[in-house]
Design brief:
An eight-stranded mixed sheet has the order 9-8-7-10-6-11-13-12, with helices on both faces. Helix content is 28%, strand content 23%. It is of the alpha/beta class. The protein binds ligand AOF and zinc ion. The site of ligand AOF has 18 residues, from α2. Keywords: Hydrolase, Metal-binding, Multifunctional enzyme, NADP, Oxidoreductase, Riboflavin biosynthesis, Zinc. Pathway: Cofactor biosynthesis; riboflavin biosynthesis; 5-amino-6-(D-ribitylamino)uracil from GTP: step 2/4; Cofactor biosynthesis; riboflavin biosynthesis; 5-amino-6-(D-ribitylamino)uracil from GTP: step 3/4. This is Riboflavin biosynthesis protein RibD. Its cofactor is Zn(2+). It catalyses: 2,5-diamino-6-hydroxy-4-(5-phosphoribosylamino)-pyrimidine + H2O + H(+) = 5-amino-6-(5-phospho-D-ribosylamino)uracil + NH4(+); 5-amino-6-(5-phospho-D-ribitylamino)uracil + NADP(+) = 5-amino-6-(5-phospho-D-ribosylamino)uracil + NADPH + H(+).
Length: 337
């Protein structure tokens, strides 16, 4: 069965919007739109998190049974082929009598993939559309599927001479308000935010995302690494998402966070924690705020990251360079290209 290209492209864009209504967690965000053979929207759906109906089943549930016969399902992810917490979507689409399925990206799961082939074998027309855009919706989830851990961004602010604080440890403020506003948007864009106990003791950060004009910005869950106790009156104890504590085995902690649905982690301080993530090869992206100031002295942004000799230097690839008021933002990945 041939599709209706214009209606299908619009429906896929709509399905991507619907996907974002779902929560980030252990399951991917998925959206679905059901079209009549002449390209009218019959129903919309999205996945509301593990244990709840998948997007295509949610969309089908909005239709009268006879409407689904001969319809086209537009889904941002390949319909699953497994019985997990819910039944296989490929079978649900077959039973409903859907004649055509258009999806954006393949399901990477060993058990859950194969829905497209299953549908095709049963005589349903299957096509793939807007793959890159579909992958972008669930980029962090796909990263977790591939690596078992959240994607990690390590952030720091520094003087031009590479210091994170003055000799006495004071560090507020090195950068200006534009850079700090940017940091709050970055906090909100991550599922969790990590600091060491040293930073909690020195700076008493709130670790909330405070964005002008957006009181409902998503808040990252604080994760405090280290062995020292968090003071009873520490600001992090009043964080709206609570907080969790973590130990020294970074990889293990990351696996645990991913198992609890954390797809991205923002490592915000300080030098000890940033260095530990870099030394362990667990930093994927760096965001470095450079302030046009000099501090000198011993408080460098990093301590030992395992580089003994110049052959071991950690080459980065700069992915973005931006001026934020008086400061510069350098974004880099640890992947060499
Ligand atoms: C779909 N449509 O809306 C979603 C899919 O065990 P479950 O039921 O929670 O299934 C989770 C897996 O199903 C998940 O890892 C991914 O492979 C797929 N997600 N598939 O057909 C959806 N959310
Ligand atoms: Zn499914």
């Amino acid at each position: 069965m041939a599709g209706n290209p214009v209606a299908e492209r619009d429906a896929m864009a709509r399905a991507r919007e619907l996907a974002h209504r779902g929560p980030r967690g252990v399951n991917p965000q998925v959206g679905a739109v059901i079209l009549s053979p002449d390209g009218r929207v019959l129903g919309e759906g999205w996945h509301r998190g593990a244990g709840t109906p998948h997007a295509e089943v949610d969309a089908l549930s909005r239709l009268r049974p006879e409407e689904a016969r001969g319809a086209t399902a537009i889904v941002t992810l390949e319909p699953c082929n497994h019985t997990g917490r819910t039944g296989p979507c490929a079978e649900a689409l077959l039973e409903a009598g859907v004649a055509r399925v258009v999806y954006a990206c393949d399901d990477p799961g060993d058990a859950s993939s194969g829905g497209a082939a299953r549908l095709q074998a049963a005589g349903v027309a299957v096509a793939r559309l807007d793959e890159a855009e579909g992958e972008a919706v669930i980029a962090d989830w796909l990263f977790v599927q591939r690596t078992g851990r959240p994607r990690v961004t390590v952030k720091w602010a520094q003087s031009l001479d590479g210091r994170a604080a003055a000799a006495d440890g004071s560090s507020q403020w090195i950068t200006g308000p534009q850079a700090r506003a940017h940091v709050h948007r970055e906090r909100s864009a991550h599922d969790a935010i990590a600091v060491g106990t040293g930073t909690v003791l020195a700076d008493d950060p709130k670790l909330t995302a405070r964005i002008d004009g957006d009181a409902d910005a998503p808040q990252p869950m604080p994760v405090v690494f280290g062995t020292r106790a968090i003071p009873v009156d520490a600001a992090v104890r009043r964080h709206p998402r609570g907080h969790r504590t973590a130990g020294h085995d970074l990889e293990r902690e990351l696996f645990g966070l991913a198992a609890d649905g954390v797809q991205s982690l923002y490592v915000e301080g300080g030098p000890t924690l940033a260095s530990a993530f870099l030394a362990a090869g667990l930093a994927d992206r760096l965001t470095i705020y450079l302030a046009p100031t000099l501090l000198g002295g011993p408080r460098t942004v990093l301590d030992d990251i395992g580089v003994r000799t110049i052959d071991e230097q950690r080459r980065l690839t700069v992915t973005r360079l931006e001026q934020l008021g008086p400061d510069l933002l350098v974004e880099a990945t640890t992947e060499e290209v």
